């Protein structure tokens, strides 16, 4: 929990004129690129990755994207700081732990059976693929809410990486003849007349990533809200719950779809290889892959810069029996003829038309497509669908052959483009095959193992500690007493009289649920619906509802397999072996209770955490509402995890966090001694480091000599996302 994620490596881009390129080793010319008029070509690591028509002498790729960030996490007066004792000296050639390719490769997605992505559908009149028969229902009225999330940074591209399309057996893509220079507010936003075949400069990528995080925040908030609405609707009228589609409808109605609903060709600004997304509707909300069912996303001929329909992305999720996935290459089965609602076998012939023809056109033109692989992941006790972005692939061949079930199928040979970060997901296998489930991971099998369980059996799930970074034998588990859960020994609060656990989710029946500012706080397996309500009240030991009550989450302890690991320059950090859904409980922050006066006398305040129940939470401006904050007393106590604590003491800071702090009460009702719980602020894939914002204010930390303390921030973000200092 020491310093933060270190700075992202700076890529070196150079805007080059056509004259400058003429004599270069790349041998690209205006004629080669089929550009009409002046253009700007960006070279990254000696590979041309993007060509954009523009004004003569214009040295910009596009104007900077509008930064749209959500509010700061929970407010605290004093928090755990970076600890010099657990930190190595910063190095300029290292990448962020928990988000770089070396760590992500340890936790590669297993071969799993999935059936979520049938490639059925065809082009509609407006160029959008059909959704395979899913009818959109009228959108229910939207209620209030405050849960907002941010995107976690994704793997950093190594210095040797060359991002962009690489010519294979197909011709190079031609730039659009009808493209006009972007003007005003439209500049910097990808358009359907602007192929984007490589990554943008780092500063533009950071601001694009901020836009992606903002859109994900809106989606995650709205979806948790729609879960409640759908449960009420199905209970009253029957039918099937589809909070994902309702969320998509709501965002369309409020015009919150990313990039104004326009599709992006090639590289998607702000999204990097290894980024994971929860369910197909989330991909659609970001315009990464728009159809909710079909596996091929396309751009119609009248909207395509190439004058013919092309494919923009495909999803590979085991929906077709004729797919063959080898990672860097795979054979993809076209759309049509699949028995989606039955045995998922091929039941009719496919033809090279519609979306299949669009994918073939992309191969002929040399236009790469984005590829997403879908997997089932375990999040606590819940199975979830996760889609991982694996980069740009080029269709190098296509043909028609007789398939396994005896029908003609269109086959596409897909080749991953060179110079991209390593794959973070493994091959996808047809759902009818067995034996592809991963073996249970054991701590004893982890490289660099320090301890199989630092909790010594005190926590509900073992927490292992590893050092897979170096071979320093002296690096061992820090000496501290493990406390799985805080025991404040306070008088128990009022109990609900519910005897049926299901009643505790109804504020009209449960007294505990009524104490929450926004009603029952949890949805779908114990996920926090929203923050900003001061304190979350769970049912307690005196309540009659029992252990199966849906209002008992934090008190049950860990539900995900967590691992403490050594980082490159921030001591130890925390990551998960399991996929953690947004809103899920991660762990409680434990330690010794100190009064405010005792806390001010501490020589080492590195692990101090104020118990501040007046948490603001996350309030999105787009919802026009502020969180309700209970009138609670000022901070009276702090938690000191220096000599006693749990896994939470190792969680590091980030200016783009994926976890959030929430005060929770269950064994008593004294808000000054709330339990401090960490919840997922975003979907966190296995192997991604868990972080939260310590939320220091620069200039507010004073040492024992009454001098201001200064500590640099190493989160890897540039201003204005990062202030440059932790305090």
Automatic annotation (TrEMBL):
GO terms for biological process: methylation. Its main location: nucleus. Transmembrane segments: none annotated. InterPro entries: H3K9_HMTase_SUVAR3-9, Pre-SET_dom, PUA-like_sf, SET_dom, SET_dom_sf, SRA-YDG_sf, SRA_YDG. GO terms for molecular function: double-stranded DNA binding; histone methyltransferase activity; zinc ion binding. Residues 560-695 form the SET domain. Residues 266-416 form the YDG domain. Residues 494-557 form the Pre-SET domain. It is found in: Chromosome; Nucleus. Residues 82-98, 118-128 have a biased composition (Polar residues). Keywords: Chromosome, Methyltransferase, Nucleus, Transferase. It comes from the Eukaryota. One of its GO terms (cellular component) is chromosome. Residues 72-104, 118-202 are annotated as: Disordered. This is Putative histone H3 (Lys9) methyltransferase SUV39H1. It comes from Klebsormidium nitens (Green alga).
């Amino acid at each position: 929990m020491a310093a933060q994620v270190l700075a992202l490596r700076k890529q070196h881009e150079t805007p080059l004129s056509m004259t400058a390129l003429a004599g270069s080793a790349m041998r690209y010319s205006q004629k080669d690129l089929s550009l009409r008029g002046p253009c700007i070509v960006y070279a990254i690591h000696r590979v041309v990755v993007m060509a954009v028509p523009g004004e003569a002498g214009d040295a910009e790729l596009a104007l900077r994207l509008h930064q749209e960030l959500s509010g700061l996490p929970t407010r605290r007066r004093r928090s755990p700081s970076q600890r010099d004792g657990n930190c190595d000296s910063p190095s300029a050639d290292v990448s962020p732990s928990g988000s770089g390719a070396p760590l992500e490769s340890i936790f590669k997605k297993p071969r799993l059976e999935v059936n979520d992505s049938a490639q059925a559908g065809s082009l509609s009149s407006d160029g959008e693929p059909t959704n395979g028969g899913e009818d959109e229902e009228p959108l229910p009225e939207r209620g209030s809410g405050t849960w907002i999330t941010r995107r976690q940074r994704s793997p950093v591209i190594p210095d040797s990486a060359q991002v962009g399309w690489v010519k294979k057996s197909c011709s190079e893509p031609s730039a659009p003849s009808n493209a006009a220079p972007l003007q005003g507010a439209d500049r910097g936003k990808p358009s359907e007349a602007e192929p984007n075949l490589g990554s943008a400069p780092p500063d533009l990528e950071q601001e694009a990533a901020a836009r992606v995080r903002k859109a994900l925040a809106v989606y995650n908030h709205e979806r948790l809200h729609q879960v409640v609405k759908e449960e009420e609707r199905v209970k009253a009228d029957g039918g099937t719950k589809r909070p994902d589609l309702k969320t998509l409808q709501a965002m369309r109605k409020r015009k919150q779809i990313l990039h104004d609903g326009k599709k992006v060709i090639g590289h998607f600004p702000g999204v990097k290889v290894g980024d994971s997304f929860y369910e197909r509707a989330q991909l659609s909300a970001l315009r990464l892959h728009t159809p909710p069912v079909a596996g091929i996303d396309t751009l119609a001929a009248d909207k395509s810069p190439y004058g013919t329909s092309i494919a923009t992305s495909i999803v590979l999720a085991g929906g077709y029996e004729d797919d063959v996935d080898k990672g860097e290459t795979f054979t993809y089965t076209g759309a049509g003829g699949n028995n989606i609602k039955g045995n998922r076998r091929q039941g009719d012939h496919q033809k090279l038309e519609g979306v299949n023809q669009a994918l073939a056109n992309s191969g002929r033109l040399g236009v790469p497509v984005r590829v997403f692989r879908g997997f089932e992941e375990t999040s606590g006790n819940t199975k979830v669908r996760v889609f991982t972005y694996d980069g740009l692939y080029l269709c190098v061949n296509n043909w028609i052959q007789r398939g396994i079930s005896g029908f003609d199928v269109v086959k596409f040979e897909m080749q991953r483009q060179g110079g991209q970060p390593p794959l973070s997901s493994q091959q996808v296998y047809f759902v009818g095959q067995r034996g592809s489930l991963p073996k249970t991971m054991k701590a004893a099998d982890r490289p660099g193992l320090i301890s199989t369980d630092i909790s010594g059996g005190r926590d509900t799930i073992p927490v292992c500690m590893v050092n897979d970074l170096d071979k320093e034998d002296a690096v061992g588990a820090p000496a501290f007493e493990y406390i799985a859960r805080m025991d404040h020994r306070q008088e128990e609060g009022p109990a609900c009289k519910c005897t049926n656990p299901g009643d505790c989710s109804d504020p009209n029946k449960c007294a505990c649920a009524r104490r929450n500012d926004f009603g029952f706080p949890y949805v779908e397996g114990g996920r926090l619906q929203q923050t900003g309500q001061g304190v979350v009240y769970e049912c307690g030991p005196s309540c009659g509802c029992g252990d199966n009550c849906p209002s008992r989450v934090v008190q049950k302890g860990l539900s995900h397999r967590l691992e403490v690991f050594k980082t490159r320059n921030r001591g130890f950090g925390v990551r998960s072996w399991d996929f953690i859904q947004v809103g899920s409980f991660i762990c409680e922050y434990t330690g010794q209770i100190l009064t405010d006066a005792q806390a001010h006398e501490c020589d080492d305040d590195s692990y101090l955490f104020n118990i501040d129940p007046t948490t603001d939470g996350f309030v999105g401006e787009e919802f026009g509402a502020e969180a309700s904050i209970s009138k609670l007393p000022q901070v009276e106590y702090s938690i000191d995890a220096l000599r006693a604590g749990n896994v939470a003491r190792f969680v590091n800071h980030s200016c783009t966090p994926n976890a959030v702090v929430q005060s929770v009460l269950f064994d008593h009702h004294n808000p000054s001694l709330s339990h401090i719980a960490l919840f997922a602020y975003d979907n966190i894939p296995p192997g991604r480091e868990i972080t939260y914002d310590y939320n220091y204010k620069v200039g507010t930390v004073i040492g024992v000599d009454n001098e201001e303390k200064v500590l640099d921030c190493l989160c890897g973000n540039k201003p204005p996302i990062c202030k440059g200092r932790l305090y």
